[in-house]
Structures are given as C-alpha cells and as structure tokens.
Amino acid sequence: MAHLSPSDIIEKYPIGRGLDAFRDSFRSTCAELSLNVSPDAIRQFSNEGLKNLALDLFIALQNLSVARYLPSSSGRGILLGDLSKFVSLLSSDDVDVKSVIPLHEKVIVHAADEDIWSAVTSLVSLRTTPPTIFNKATFDTPLKSTSSSQQGSEQTHDEIDPRILQEINGCVYQNTRGFYEKYFEGRSWSAAVEKMVRAADPQIVDGRWTEYPNPPSQKAFLDWFWTFQAQFFREPRGTYNTSHSTPLAGSDWRRQPDLFLIPSRTTKRDGKYNWTDVQVIGELKQSENQREFRKELIWFCNYE
C-alpha cells in the first residue's frame, strides 16, 4: 500500500467497533472503583490499573487490520511492529503508564480514527528511536554540574567538551527515517505542501535535486534558498533569515547563526533581530574531516 497515504489507509480500514472491548473493560474498572464513567475517571486509576488498561488497549490495537498497513514511525516496517514492542515495554514496566492517558481519553470519547492513530504513532515513536550517533561514553570523574554551570576559567574546551558529550549521549541519532511521513502525510497542511511542491516542480536526477547548489557552499545555498523562499513560501507562519555576519541581539554571546526561523512580521530592533524571536536555528557546515565528526558535533553544541 505504498501508493496510499496514512489518511487513505485509515479511511480504508476504519476502527469501527474494534475497540469496544477496551471501552467495556474501562467501564467495568470504573464500576469496581465506584467511579463515574467519564474520561476524567481514568486519572484516578492506580498505576497497576493504568498498566492493565494500556495492555488491553494495545492488544486491541494490534488486532485491527489497519495496523498491518500503516507505516512504522521509524520509517522501517509497519506500525504493528511498533505496537508489539510497546506491549513488551508496558509488560516490563519500561514505560510511564501515565503517558498513555491522552490516548485512552481519545478512545473513550470515540475520537476520529485519524486522531486516535496520530496519538498512537506519537506515543510509540518515542520508543522506536534509531541508533545513536555514538555509544554512550563513561567518565571516571562523576558529573557534578552541567555545561551551562561552567564559569570563568573553568569554561575551557578541554574541560567543558567532555561534559557536553556526556549531556548529549543518547540524544543524537543518525539515519533517522520517516520524517516526511511523520510531518507531511495526513496532516492539515499536507495539501498546501503538495501545492508548493507542484509549483516548485523539482527535477530529480539520480536521487538529486538538480537545481540545488553543487557544491552547496554557504553563499551558494543562501542565494538559492532566499530565491526559493520568496517564490514558494507564500503566507508562511515563519520566515527564515541569516545572521552569519552580525551577532543577534539579546545575548552576551556574539553568536551568528547561519540560518534561523522567526515568526512572520517580526520586526528588527536597532537593525537586529533578537534571540527571543528565534524559534529554530540551523548551521551550514561542511565537514573538513569526516573522521572527526564527534569533534564537530561538540563544536556545534557548544556553538560559541
């Protein structure tokens, strides 16, 4: 079903009465606890009660046909595999059962199928992350403070870099897939994105966008990107800018982000944007030595 979007798959295989047994279990538990049957009642369940209810729900979800056709949140395989892994995590108490409450509430009130599956995908995606970019490191000296607490002469690269590395261990991933499916398929903005893509009409040859700068040096990329933004990002909620030659205001650090996103119609103050306006930052970086990716990663996190 590669030709069908998640929304099409959900519409083709509706939940119907497939979760009625779960709702019956919820009502039965409410009766045992002398609680009124309402979505709010679930917040009065014990952790053991929440765990049993979550197991009932995810076992029921696995039995729905649509789970065999929706893609995995990891970008590999199908959602059914994610559900199975999540059941194992629930069984071994490796999941905070309270994190499942919002999903329970959607199912209890008979929310739309797409809302239910969106909540399911978001929940299991937290537990189906790709490999980290490096194995977790250990340090002989216990960490007694975070990198943000380093002051004065202590704040040197030799001392702070290992602490930064320790902080980001297990938080940085490589070969992350499924980005398009997660953020651009079956979303309220999907139609607008498709319209933008058709307008841009990208020419792809051997897996590469031919209009994209080659090599993508900083100047070449920015020149191309400003033109692309002006032509195709119509009525955006945010606008991309650069400050690679002038530090942003609002910080003692003279940092100059290559690319940053601010809300549309944000105005400059004294000729500069302020760090308080920035929503996302980006760094245009070409590795000088790919074998030193860890060094460059720490440099980016340090971002001095």
Describe what you observe in this structure.
The chain is mainly alpha-helical and 304 residues long. Helices cover 41% and strands 5% of the residues. It has helices at 6-12, 20-32, 47-62, 79-91, 101-108, 113-125, 157-168, 179-184, 190-200, 218-232, 293-302, and strands at residues 204-205, 208-209, 238-241, 259-263, 280-282. Strands 3-4-5 form a 3-stranded antiparallel β-sheet, with no helix packed on it. Strands 1-2 form a two-stranded antiparallel ribbon. Helix 3 runs antiparallel to helix 4 (79-91). The longest helix has 16 residues, at 47-62. The chain is globular and about 65 Å long. Residues 136-145 have low confidence and may be disordered.
Short descriptors:
5% strand; 5 strands; 304 residues; two-stranded antiparallel ribbon; mainly alpha
List the SSEs and their pairings:
Blueprint: H1 6-12, H2 20-32, H3 47-62, H4 79-91, H5 101-108, H6 113-125, H7 157-168, H8 179-184, H9 190-200, E1 204-205, E2 208-209, H10 218-232, E3 238-241, E4 259-263, E5 280-282, H11 293-302
Antiparallel strand pairs: 1-2, 3-4, 4-5
Helix pairs in contact: 2-3, 3-4, 5-6
